[in-house]
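Help needed: design a sequence for this.
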């Protein structure tokens, strides 16, 4: 008979809060093993005792048969003394292991819990906090590791005998489900409306009635509040837009099922998988003609999500019984550039003018988190906002080093903490010009550092001396490392893919502080092992009034038209500006001529803004990139016909892209009555061709074989696909952001990689 052996096994990765200990318990029982399993600060530790072959198979199955939401990064095995015990147990969490455990992201309602929720005979019928080891709150309720109920915001809810029985039954899917609850012992909802208070099922029923009647309400979700109303009610939509001060910016909507999403939108296999995934992000779908134009005016795509919490599913069930199956707007419960509200106190203080009723609950939110946003482009699902469902999952790095805090950018702020070969990005923080978001940054940094047990180390920040993120970085302990904005964009891609060796980074965005003190935004940066240099860019043009040019987009258009057409521009194209007051046009013209408050920029975002004005899309924007987004929407998947020419010149050893020929041609097309879609198609084709040729020329001269595309402009699907395809035809390997946003929401990852690898700008 083979001797009995006992092995100690440490499993690291996303192994807490995903049903990993019950999984190990069942595996051990299947192989007749004795021992124990527990959570600790490092992950999950196991001691397994039995026949050598059984123990070996058991260890192999830890990875092969892991729970769906788990991620196993490593399995370490060592021999320990045989104890002679006969049973296998789940023991109390704890131990002195170094902190390396990872808290999982929040998980959308699973199919089993949804089935129970909608079953009138089930004890959890329409209970808005139904969950199991496969779904429910995780990051938003956890305070510290290990992930156990006493260390979450569920600590105040004592399980009833029925829930305790489930929790202790190895064959039940709620075995050791930390947020386990039911209507008897768990959290409950409360509705405040018209001076009255409703609780429990009555609160849900009344909420459904109020939504049906066209009211706007605040609904508490996993990571904060939504402002909700019927997407098909013009009055409700108008009231919400007035309250949010968002006359045009698109709202996300929630639909009851994947089938209803297909009714209103075209849904690919990849998009369908994303909608139904445990992360359940908002997915940007191509909407069918005329579908809910008011939710996303002027755009061909609609942000759609499915009910990812039992509260949402219960509401849609009640609405369905009343004959309503259309979408509800579910937009962030905040005003512009403020943190999302996480409790009813904040709602009363900040949203009372927007919401006529409030549906809240008594399970506290410890870590607020907005909804994530994803889209499909160039054959992959990509994130435009990384928050609920993805945070705090780590991005695996090719190598580690001293801990780094990367403070990110000022817009769409996200910071990054590294721990060894792992990069942990915060949830979306927002615009740091808003003081509340600076407080949110500090609050979230304190909490994430506490979870990860990361000591102070290197502090990376944007090169811009006046950014709020730079000021925050300077006030923190640690060696400060300034990082040029577009270098960080490109390195975010390199970090994602673990790229080593030289590459060319192509970073297209609106603005970023350049190492020459100018405003960069269309950059071709050549990287070697630990340095980078600027090898190409868009020719500088004037940005009259500075940042206001992102809203009054006729300003950069005027600068480009004047530069391209010369002194006689008024005779040939002044009527392009007929909708702009003549006094303003004259003032801006004089500003350009005098060089007064006209910073020079190479910003691709501002170039797109200008062309959207020239095309006749709009003269001003009420949200970032409105004109370019509407201009791309005009294409609706059509292939470009012809292309505008951009000249490529060698200036001071760099390739410079001159837009003057394209500007002249676009002006001529507009004055000849060509439609905006025609101009848009030619712009996209011409700009993509110029980018491809510039990149290929630089790569060829430097012997580079790899190109990384990043920056917010590459969220333009058409441009990303045209440039990717063109570069691949040139024989270049092309990479672009997937795990983190290409916009400034991913820049902290690049800053962290810059600090870890010791990059410097070449002299």
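Sure. Designed sequence:
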């Amino acid at each position: 008979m083979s001797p009995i052996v006992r092995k100690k096994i440490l499993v690291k990765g996303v192994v807490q809060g995903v049903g990993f200990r019950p999984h190990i318990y069942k595996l051990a029982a299947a192989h007749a093993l004795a021992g124990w399993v527990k959570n600790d600060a490092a992950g999950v530790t196991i001691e397994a005792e039995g026949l050598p072959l059984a123990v070996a198979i058991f260890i192999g199955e830890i990875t092969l048969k892991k729970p769906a939401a788990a991620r196993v990064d490593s399995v370490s095995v060592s021999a320990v003394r045989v104890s002679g015990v006969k049973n296998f147990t789940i023991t109390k969490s704890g131990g002195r292991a170094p902190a390396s455990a990872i808290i999982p992201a929040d998980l959308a309602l699973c199919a089993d819990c949804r089935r129970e929720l909608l079953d009138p005979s089930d004890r959890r019928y329409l209970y808005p906090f139904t969950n199991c080891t496969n779904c429910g709150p995780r990051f938003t309720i956890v305070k510290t590791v290990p992930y156990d109920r006493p260390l979450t915001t569920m600590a105040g809810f004592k399980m009833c005998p029925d829930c305790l029985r489930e929790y202790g039954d190895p064959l039940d899917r709620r075995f050791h489900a930390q947020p386990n609850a039911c209507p008897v012992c768990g959290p409950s909802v409360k509705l405040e409306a018209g001076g009255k208070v409703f609780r429990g099922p009555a609160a849900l029923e009344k909420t459904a009635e109020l939504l049906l009647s066209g009211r706007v309400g605040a609904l508490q979700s996993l990571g904060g509040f939504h402002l909700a109303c019927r997407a098909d009610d013009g009055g409700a939509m108008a009231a919400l837009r007035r309250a949010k001060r968002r006359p045009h910016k698109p709202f996300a909507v929630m639909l009851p099922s994947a089938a209803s999403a297909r009714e209103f939108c075209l849904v690919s296999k990849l998009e369908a998988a994303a909608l139904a995934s445990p992360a359940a992000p908002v997915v940007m779908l191509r909407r069918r003609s005329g579908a809910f134009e008011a939710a996303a005016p002027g755009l061909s795509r609609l942000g759609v999500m499915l009910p990812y919490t039992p509260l949402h599913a219960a509401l849609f069930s009640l609405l369905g019984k009343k004959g309503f199956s259309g979408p509800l707007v579910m937009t962030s419960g905040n005003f512009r550039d403020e943190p999302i509200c996480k409790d009813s106190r904040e709602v009363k203080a900040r949203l009372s003018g927007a919401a006529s009723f409030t549906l809240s609950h008594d399970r506290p939110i410890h870590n607020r988190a907005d909804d994530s946003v994803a889209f499909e482009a160039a054959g992959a699902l990509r994130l435009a906002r990384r928050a609920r469902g993805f945070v705090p999952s780590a991005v695996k790095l090719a190598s580690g080093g001293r801990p780094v805090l990367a403070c990110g950018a000022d817009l769409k702020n996200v910071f990054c903490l590294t721990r060894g070969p792992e990069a942990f990005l915060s949830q979306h923080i927002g615009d740091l010009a808003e003081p509340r978001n600076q407080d949110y940054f500090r609050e979230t940094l304190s909490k994430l550092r506490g979870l990860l047990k990361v000591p102070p180390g290197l502090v990376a920040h944007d090169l811009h001396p006046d950014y709020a993120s730079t000021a925050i970085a300077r006030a923190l302990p640690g060696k400060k490392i300034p990082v040029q904005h577009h270098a960080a964009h490109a390195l975010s891609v390199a970090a994602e893919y673990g790229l080593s060796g030289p590459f060319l980074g192509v970073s297209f965005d609106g603005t970023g502080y350049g190492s020459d003190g100018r405003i960069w935004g269309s950059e071709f940066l050549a990287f070697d092992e630990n340095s980078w240099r600027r090898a190409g860019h868009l020719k500088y043009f004037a940005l009259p009034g500075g940042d206001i040019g992102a809203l009054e987009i006729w300003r950069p258009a005027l600068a480009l038209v004047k530069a391209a057409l010369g002194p006689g521009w008024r005779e040939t194209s002044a009527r392009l500006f007929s909708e702009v007051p003549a006094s303003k046009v004259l003032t801006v013209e004089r500003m350009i001529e005098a060089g007064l408050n006209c910073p020079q920029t190479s910003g691709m975002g501002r170039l797109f803004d200008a062309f959207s004005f020239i095309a006749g899309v709009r003269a001003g924007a009420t949200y970032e990139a409105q004109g370019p987004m509407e201009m791309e929407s005009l294409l609706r998947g059509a292939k470009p016909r012809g292309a505008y020419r951009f000249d490529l010149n060698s200036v001071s050893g760099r390739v410079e892209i001159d837009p003057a020929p394209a500007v002249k041609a676009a002006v001529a097309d507009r004055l000849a009555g060509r439609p905006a879609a025609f101009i848009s198609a030619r712009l996209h084709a011409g700009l993509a061709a110029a980018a491809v040729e510039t990149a290929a020329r630089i790569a060829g001269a430097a012997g580079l074989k790899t190109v990384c595309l990043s920056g917010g402009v590459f969220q333009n699907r058409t441009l990303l696909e045209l440039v990717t395809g063109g570069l691949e035809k040139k024989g270049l390997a092309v990479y672009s952001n997937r795990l983190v946003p290409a916009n400034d929401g991913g820049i902290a990852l690049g800053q962290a990689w810059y600090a870890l690898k010791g990059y410097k700008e070449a002299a």
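The radius of gyration is 28 Å.
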